[in-house]
Design a protein that fits this description.
heterodimer; A: mainly alpha; Non-ribosomal Peptide Synthetase Peptidyl Carrier Protein, Chain A; about 0% strand; globular; B: about 425 residues; alpha/beta; Peroxisomal Thiolase, Chain A, domain 1; six-stranded mixed β-sheet
Chain lengths: ~80, ~425
């Protein structure tokens, strides 16, 4: 999966939780889930659960803590996929 | 006001149903498959489309709490019906709050959570489990939607819950601590909430093949209650405030009372202490500043158990009225079943609809009035058919609950 495809699938995953439609439209590697997309911090755990099931990976607590931006999410997903 | 009742969701549908005496009780195969003795119940008809009118796709994601759903429908409808806006500003509405009770809600969500936890998958509970299983889930959801800034709480006192909520909200306004309060009660449907009552043998097992005849308050052939579910909600505010903003007024709350029999004497965890019941009714009449003779109608608790006759005896002794002098009396549960934590709120909505629109809804399935009841009151006082009358001025409504708790409200017609 290339970078663009990964961003596209993340965009689809976070869509239900995004409170700022503009933020979703402009979503890129540097988007911050809370600051730019206005996702409620409690919903971040749901985003991570949805990522886990979409990519069939398990994200540990340490990785979860780091997953605050699209970029961090992409790195963690790529690492976890490569470990499979 | 707003309502999600087994025989009608929304004020227009519910008004039509109670005037026509339409039962909301149906047979549920799921209950039969689970070996329930009572396989009939009352569930408000709520379609997926209707759900989406009240909750956003995000709110409905991983949502599994029927009680909270019914509470949101009734609560939002009540707020709209009162002509009040959903607060779209950044500021809480400091003058408005809610007391929205539940007996139990979120039980299906709890079940989901237990399976995940037991399988070692606690992470899968996601973000919404707490919100849906906490007792105050319903008041928290409504707060998010409406934006209150005053008291936001959930009360719980078994089958008194809905009636108690209204009285707590009433006191809040009477003491000047809030201008308006959304008051109500809600309850889940389904086997996990109804199972305990089935096991207690307080539900009927004799009417599975005739659901509409199953809920039989005051009948000689009453054999236990039919479990129901749903929600009812009312917006309370001071008369001045309501008149000031030209609000629709369904009726006035003159007063009320709550008490407990302490599970002493003939009271127990599951049975009311008659001395306390009578005292509660008398105190409500006194608080309302009326004479017992002014009560034209009693909206009873009347669940269709052996306790119905005891309830009538308590009303009769507390009001010192009997025979032809007894007020009209009816039971909404004959159409909805016993909606548990929601019952008091749904029944208060029904009472006020009758007061405002000049009718007394029929009490179904008691053509064969129980002989112990017929010995106390003239059976003409139990309406089997709709009565249209503009003479009705005062209604007494009471609820009694497990734990030996009682509550009674006195409503008066608003004549301007």
């Amino acid at each position: 999966m290339n970078k663009e495809e990964l961003i596209a699938s993340l965009k689809e995953i976070v869509k239900p939780y995004v409170k700022d439609p503009e933020g979703l439209k402009n979503l890129d590697e540097n988007s911050d889930f809370i600051k730019d997309l206005k996702i409620n911090s409690a919903n971040l755990v749901d985003v991570i659960l949805d990522i886990e099931s979409a990519f069939d990976i398990i994200i540990d607590n340490e990785s979860m803590e780091k997953m605050l931006t699209v970029k961090a999410a992409m790195e963690i997903i790529t690492t976890k996929l490569s470990e499979k | 006001m707003g309502v999600a009742a087994p025989n009608g969701v929304g004020i227009p549908a519910f008004t039509d149903a109670i005037k026509k005496g339409i039962s909301g009780i149906h047979f549920y195969k799921e209950l039969e498959d689970l070996n329930f003795s009572c396989c009939v119940g009352g569930i408000p008809p709520v379609s997926e489309e209707l759900k989406q009118q009240y909750l956003s796709p995000l709110q409905l994601r991983n949502f599994n709490s029927s009680g909270i759903l019914y509470g949101c429908i009734a609560g939002m409808d009540a707020w709209n019906d009162a002509g009040l806006p959903m607060n779209g500003t950044d500021n809480p509405d400091w003058d408005s709050g809610t007391v929205f009770g539940t007996g139990t809600s979120g039980v299906e969500k709890y079940r989901e959570a237990i399976y995940h936890v037991d399988a070692g998958n606690v992470k899968k509970l996601g973000s919404t489990t707490v919100l849906q299983i906490m007792a105050s889930g319903i008041s928290a959801y409504l707060n998010g939607i409406i934006g209150f800034g005053n008291l936001v709480t959930t009360n719980s006192s078994a089958c008194c819950t809905g009636t108690d909520a209204i009285l707590i909200a009433f006191e809040r306004i009477r003491s000047g601590k809030a201008k308006r309060m959304l008051a109500g009660g809600c309850s889940d449907h389904g086997p996990y909430i109804w199972g305990g009552f089935d096991a207690l043998k307080v539900t009927t097992y004799k009417n599975n093949s005739s659901p509409e005849k199953a809920s039989r308050p005051m009948s000689a052939t009453a054999s236990g209650f039919v479990p129901g579910s749903g929600a009812g909600a009312l917006v309370l505010e001071s008369l001045e405030s309501a008149i000031g903003r030209g609000a629709k007024i369904y009726g006035e709350i003159l007063g009320g009372a709550v008490n407990s029999g302490g599970q002493r004497s003939d009271g127990s965890m599951t049975a009311p202490n008659s001395t306390a019941v009578q005292r509660c009714i008398k105190e409500a009449v006194e608080d309302a500043g009326i004479h017992a003779d002014e009560i034209g109608l009693i909206n009873g608790h009347l669940t269709a158990t052996a306790k119905d006759a005891t309830e009538i005896k308590n009303w009769s002794e507390a009001l010192n009225r009997k025979g032809k002098d007894f007020p009209y009396i009816h039971s909404l549960k004959s159409m909805t079943g016993h909606c548990l934590g929601a019952s008091g709120a749904i029944e208060c909505v029904a009472a006020l609809l009758g007061l405002k629109n000049d009718f007394i809804f029929p009490s179904l399935n008691c053509e064969d009035v129980h002989p112990e009841i017929a010995a106390i009151i003239d059976t003409e006082k139990i309406p089997h058919k709709l009565i249209e009358t503009d003479k009705l001025q005062v209604i007494a409504k009471a609820s009694f609950g497990f734990g030996d708790v009682n509550s009674c409200i006195i409503f008066k017609k608003y004549t301007g």
